Amino acid sequence: MSLPLFYDLVMSWDAELTALTERIGRSLFVRPEPRANFADLVRGLLADVPRKNSWQLSDHVGHGTANRFEHLLDRAKWDAEALREQVRDYVVEHLASPDAVIIADDTQAIKKGDRSVGVAPQYCGSTGQVENCQVMPMLTYASAAGHAFINRRLYLPESWAHDPRRRAMAGVPEDVVFATKPGLVIEMLAVELSAGTPFAYLAGDAGYGRDPELRAFCHRTERPIAYVMAVPVDLPLVTVHGQSEPAGHVLDRLLALGDAGLWERRSCGQGAKGVRLFDWAAVAVHVKDQQPAPGHGHMLLLRRSVADPAEIEFFLAHARVGTAITELIRIAGMRWKIEENNEQGKDLLGLTQYQVRKWTPWHRHVTTVMLALAFLTVTRARLTGMDAPTVREDEQGKALVPQVPSG
């Protein structure tokens, strides 16, 4: 692509971003000053700023101090839930597909001290150990056009949820009660169902797949949700003779019959390093104390690593009877897309680089980052098929945000 054409492309990104922030800003703010600050914040998040905190973002966009962004995130009058709805609507407008997948996962922000809302010693997936951190269950919307966050929650550990003093200091609303991480995903799914968000499947890791209440929510007869979620090896199943057994015993029985013909090598989608090939096996199962929705059945998928055959992961599928196994494998392979969103949000857009401690500023920052990621995703989708790089990469091959003018 010639330099003038590339310049025109960048200018079109700038115009689209301006139109988006103006449209959303007018729905959120009465006065022009917070609308301008909101637009500056989104533009700063998309820029090449080392740390996406209020001070460095303010310096990048030309504010003399961090006061404007700090006021916007903390004391200004606006509704982060209204912004979240706008983000979801924008993503659906550009990426919607009837066979789209909603993916549930949580990400963590490691923090010091004990005053930031929700922070506590708890398991951190990014390090694989207990850290002093905040945990954020998120939903990603994924289709062939792209994938971006559409919903979020902040997990409040019981030590926070049942402590009136800490709640008051952090501004936690009175109607917020303790909920498990899967419970928060149920809340978000209910919001998306009510909004009519089009999707065909739910995907998630074993932290969500193992939860019987989340699965029960998906089995409801009035609006069943098909899913493919990772599950632990001890997921309770029922044999044909009515006896209880863990999922791992299914693998043992299959292996006892011999390895020949058991596994089939299949791709579950493109990854950062190319086609993601695994060996797969599948068997119909009955889940203990849980019936599938009418017209649906349960299938246990077993995924074996090609490089290390001892590495086997289990997935439970809940889908309409007659659904092709290849379709279920495709859905299982979609789960990594939310991990990519988590990485992009943290590394490129400052998802966890905030310096806020209270409930309202946290939701405002995270939701604004969701808007920045949605803009990035839609911009990529529009570039598909054009004679231009779909996205720039750094020396490690990580995606960089399309740079728009900062003024």
Automatic annotation (TrEMBL):
Protein name per its UniProtKB record: Transposase IS701-like DDE domain-containing protein
Sorted UniProt keywords: Coiled coil
Span of domain Transposase IS701-like DDE: 31-238
Membrane-spanning ranges: none
InterPro entries in the record: IS701-like (IPR039365), IS701-like_DDE_dom (IPR038721), RNaseH-like_sf (IPR012337)
Coiled coil location: 66-93
Entry superkingdom: Bacteria
